[in-house]
Design a protein that fits this description.
Elements lengths: L3 E6 L7 H15 L3 E6 L13 H5 L7 H8 L1
Parallel strand pairs: 1-2
């Protein structure tokens, strides 16, 4: 079984201190032959869940923001 780790950068600064720290973690994991990907949430607002349950029907949130892209990755 191949293991892949999704590292989430929630900082508004794409390549700031959080990114640097995640790169260190990724390097360590890669050294152990574990594939990694860093996903940047971005700096735009993310709408909260309103429990409409449309995601069950559509397979995606009705609010088309980065959450849908993250959901695909996760």
């Amino acid at each position: 079984m191949e293991l892949k780790v999704l590292l989430v950068n929630g900082s508004p600064h794409k390549e700031g201190c959080t990114y640097t720290a995640l790169c260190e973690v990724a390097d360590t994991l890669n050294h152990e032959n574990i594939e990694t990907e860093i996903f940047w949430i971005g700096n735009r607002p993310i709408g909260g869940c309103i429990a409409c349950l449309k995601c069950r029907e559509k397979g995606a949130c009705v609010f088309d923001d980065v959450v849908n892209h993250f959901r695909e990755k996760a």
